[in-house]
Amino acid sequence: MAGIKTIIGLSFILAIGFLLVILSAALFKNYLTLLVVATYVIAPLPNWLCGRAANHDDFMESSGSGVVDFGRFLTGFFVVMGIALPALLYHSATIEGGAAAMSVVGGLLIYATIISFTLFFQEDQDF
To answer: Per the database entry, which stretches of residues form a coiled coil (predicted)?
Structure first.
């Protein structure tokens, strides 16, 4: 059971992640690094939506896993895109190296906080 300390800790880490991404944009005066926030916020959505759309059968374990696998693929695509986008922008000399590093670290902190929140506060289903 997650309590108030977990909520405070996760919100502190989330705030640090957003601070790093915003500082990577503001300090280097290039706001393209804010696209990382969008990719990490959108990343858990396909996994959640495809998990809800899957056909859960109590008797057969292998039925309907294609939709879940597609959701996991899209989630992985968005996570990798959140790392690759600053690397691509740095490689094309659109942003500086410090901005790319701060953006990647901040984005990973944001995504890790979102995943930790869902793991700590998911409800168990009783049948």
So the answer is: none
